[in-house]
Specification:
alpha+beta, Alpha-Beta Plaits, globular
């Protein structure tokens, strides 16, 4: 079986019940189902790591801009790709 390359998004958001649905909806709108989704609370913040099958760097750059534009987002970045 061939290994799949994944890209990880790391997001830091304000601790708010609306943060998670807003983040994940951006992926769903583009037909992306995360390979892995991890979220933890850290004080007044949510730390969210989302692994997605690497498809197109341009798409991921646009998605990153949209995540950063959400009002509850403190920081968002793409960590990189890995197999």
């Amino acid at each position: 079986m061939a290994s799949m390359t994944r890209t990880q998004f790391c997001v830091r958001a304000t601790l708010d019940v609306e943060a998670l649905p807003r983040i994940i909806s951006l992926f769903a709108q583009r037909g992306l189902v995360p390979e892995q989704f991890y979220c933890r609370r850290s004080g007044a913040l949510l730390i969210v790591d989302i692994d997605v099958e690497a498809v197109d760097r341009t798409l991921f750059d646009i998605l990153l801009q949209k995540v950063r534009a959400l009002v509850l987002i403190d920081r968002a970045r793409i960590v990189g790709s890995r197999a």
